[in-house]
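Project standup — Tuesday

K.O.: blocked on the structure for the chain from last sprint. Re-posting the sequence here as requested.
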Amino acid sequence: MELPKKVLSIIREIINEAPRNGLELLLVCAGAKPGDIFDFLSPLKARKLFVKYVEELKTQVPIDYMFYERRTDASNLLNFSELAHINEMIKDYVCYCESEQECGQIMYYNTLIVSQELALKVKALFEGKASKDYDYCVGVFYVYPRCCINANINGSGMKKFCPYTEHFWCTPNCKESKKIALKFKNTVKENFPEYMDLLKTFGRPVKTCL
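H.V.: unblocked you, prediction finished:
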């Protein structure tokens, strides 16, 4: 999907503040990915820019968005986060401010791919409401192949990320995952080729993949 210049300009502004968040927004706007989020780890400036421009984006590309409630506050997150790199991310990105639109979490999605019914279900899941369909619904939202979702549920997945994607592949030669990786690569290469190296680190490269 060829994106309007105004949309690319907005995405560029967000990329300048938070490159990964900006590329994720690009993929959703272009229809390469169903949806994504701005959460408490997303830099505040990037979230503010999204809120500032999202209504304008909606007039240019088929996307919509919802705020969803955080399941816990930042102080609790700091208490149970044990991994050093996660603690560093939280220290850098968690903000303490009063505005829900600044500190709240935002999910956004391509309306040509994600139905309103699925969006509301994913929102409920993000807010901590239990469901047997959690892995499948969230996997669809983030464009994880069903084979990879099933493999990771039953413990047979690779447990390693592959380049250009954000999920654990079921096998090193997963055809569906390769299609997603190629779509991501082509979308970024066409619009922001200077960020191809960043896209490659969406997951941790595994030599046997691609």
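K.O.: great, moving the ticket to review. DSSP finds eleven helices and three strands in the chain. The chain has two domains: 1-128, 144-210.
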